[in-house]
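Posting this for the archive.
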Amino acid sequence: MVVMGRIGGAFGIKGWVKVQTFTQSLDGLIEYSTWWLSAAQGWRENRVEEAAVHGRLIIAKLSGIDDRSAAEQLRGCEVAVPRSQLPANQPGEYYWAELIGLGVTNVQGVMLGRVGKLLETAAQQVLLVEGARERLIPFIDSVVVSVDVAGGSLVVDWDADF
């Protein structure tokens, strides 16, 4: 599963939910007629009856969620789709989920840690690298030298002292 958003709570009284998306375009998640929601027992499939962009969020009506109380119970659930349903990457493009866990080494060969998560800032995307200490490393061409998803590694032009 590739996590593409998180339910923030109920929207209205008829079972609609507000979704914060992690997709590049705000409406990217709307393209999928079925979403998988995180649950204590694992992922569960939910059919999307309707969805629309609403400001900086998506609002959606999921099958079987018919009132505000049911929608509120979904607060905090992650929204995902199977990796097999996502379009193929173009060269030099990566899904964030593919980068999580990659080992990060600088060009001098110093292991800096592993990608813990990615952050979206106004200026660029940033890798949160967890190792002996946390580092924030911009995910930009001038810093990221190479990405080898299959090999589990990422090389950056980044001083170990930063």
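The two ends are 33 Å apart (CA to CA). The chain has a mean pLDDT of 92.
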